[in-house]
Structure prediction request, 698 residues.
Amino acid sequence: MQFLKPLFLLLSAACLSAQLWAQAPVVDVGSPRSDSQSGRNMEGEMYQQLQLLRQEIMALRGTVEEQGYQLRQLKQQGLDRYIDLDRRLTAAGSVGVGIEGAAITAGSEAAATDNAAAIPATETTDDAVVVAGTTPALLDGDESSDYSKAYDLVKSASYDQAVTAFAAYVEKYPSGRYTPNAWYWLGELYVAIKPQNLDASTKAFQRLLTDYPDHGKVPAAMYKLGTVYFLNGDKKKSQEMLTHVIDRYGSTGNSAVNKSREFLRKNF
Amino acid sequence: MLIRIFTVLIFLAASSVSMADLTIEINKGKDDPVPIAIVPFGWQAGLTVAEDIASIVESDLHRSGQFDPLSRSDMLGRPRNSTEVYYRDWKSLGVDYVVVGSLSQEVTGTVTANYELLDVNTQRVILTGKESVSTDQPRYLAHTVSDKIYEKLTNIRGAFRTQLLYVSAVREGGNRTRFRLLKSDIDGANESVLFDSREPIMAPTWSPDGQKIAYVSFETSRPAIYIQDLRTNARTQLTSFRGLNGAPAFSPDGAKMAMVLSKDGSPDIYVMDLASGDLQRITNHFAIDTEPAWMPDGRSIVFTSDRGGKPQIYKVDVASRSVERITFEGDYNARARVLADGLGLVMVHRENGNFHIAVMDMKRNRVEILTTTNLDESPSVAPNASMLLYATQYDGKGVLAAVSIDGGVKYRLPSRFGDVREPAWSPFLQ
Prediction:
């Protein structure tokens, strides 16, 4: 392109001037002093004018294109804002209780999972302040506010209370929207509490794997279960499970695959 | 950031005397390449193979930037198949995968590779393969093995069996320059001269089936588009219109050729039906329209135009001729090439007065600059869209360089003689 361009310009300039020369007599007839010298000047001037006009038009076209683009962007932004606002208002109206921070990643575990995407990220409403004063473990809301209350306990590292809350949650909502996530957290939490309850953790992860085999948390749960087996001294099962994660999800780029590989490398 | 220097000397193919052999230097790799060991292949007694197969596989995987091959001197053993592998040894060397294999002759005139890919952490064979080629194509055999391993481990189709076209210019005495159109394997080996001229050769491009190429040659003292059949080397002059004849681009079905002609005034995009020779004018503007590239569906063409005062990328619908501007970021975007999925463009993008190669996400309208050198031009994308080649300047010479589409891997292919430019990465070849 860079070295073609001068060539283009030359060629187009050559075509242009040829056309203009051909039109020369028309200009001459209209001019009072039509000697060849002034005719040529006129033509030169016309040519220059035309060039300037073209440049002007091209610059204007560029501006119009860019403004059109900006306009489309602004429209899209306006629409996005409206949809966002509408979603917030609807959520505030129906939930009544704020689900604050559901989208905030708590600790490295939550950051490594796609947990946040599964939970509606609604804004805090005034009600949330009221709720905060009550016992958080008490499940008196709907499935999403109860879940976020339990999840808040994970974030504040109140693991024992979180276990109670999630255990109550899976009982209250045996097939709720966030029940798979609750089983996952139970699996994690039983390892985090002191003393650890590895059997309960195993059961929670297994429950997630059998009841929700297609859920997004399954690869992470399998990896975790593999590590729990390891902690429990069952190296064979652990290796099997981690190998299975690599085989089954190796092509998906799921972060559990690399973690499994890492764990195998370090511990076997 | 890892900096590695890695040089491969390319031996000239006996068939052609060429001046512009390429060498490869990897100057930037991925930050966490997968550790892998490619054990030298065993071979049947009495069999001689002209190339070190495992070493070529090693170079291929290394060049992709996604793998970090273990040095041979660090290997504790040379197993030839999975039963001879002691996983613990490889684990202690920190490799995740091991490739073992052996060469044999099952049919006269051919060589066969049996190979296995092993996962050290799970202690299992995850790929078993067998490939045969005629004895004079050992490099092809190696690239085939590389493709299979790459595909198994990355889930992306390997492009190690692809080829490369480029133009070299060598100055000769008395102000004369010799232009050559060259073809080589993608690693620079097996270089051959396709066309040799004292006048400029420009814009080489592949047909979608990889059997023909097209380019612009000034051999008749004015630009004309030629098609050359790679099997017979027969050349056909496609166009020789008054003015410019440039930037040929085969349509995705191979039946048409997009090009730039200035026969009707300013340079515009035209499409020629290759069977009938019918010519259609696709754009009509007093500004310069040039550098056409087809969208993968063959229904529209992207091109560079300065109709808006500055060079930008536009898209024209071939049927309706409606034109739409695509790029808005920056005051110079040109020479677009479309990724195979049609969702992205690579192009030359100017930022702070420097010309870089950039990739644009067409859905989100986001532009990402991939190269850090200046005066980068002529991007050409691998058929698996994992990497792209481009021309740049290094040490005052025109050289070819490659960069991965995420910008993480970079390598240069400097020529030893003269300037090289205008790389064209082939499609997948049969």
User: Anything to note?
Assistant: Confidence is low (pLDDT under 50) at residues 1-20 of chain B. The domain at 32-154 of chain B is CATH 3.40.50.10070 (Rossmann fold). The two ends of chain B are 37 Å apart (CA to CA).
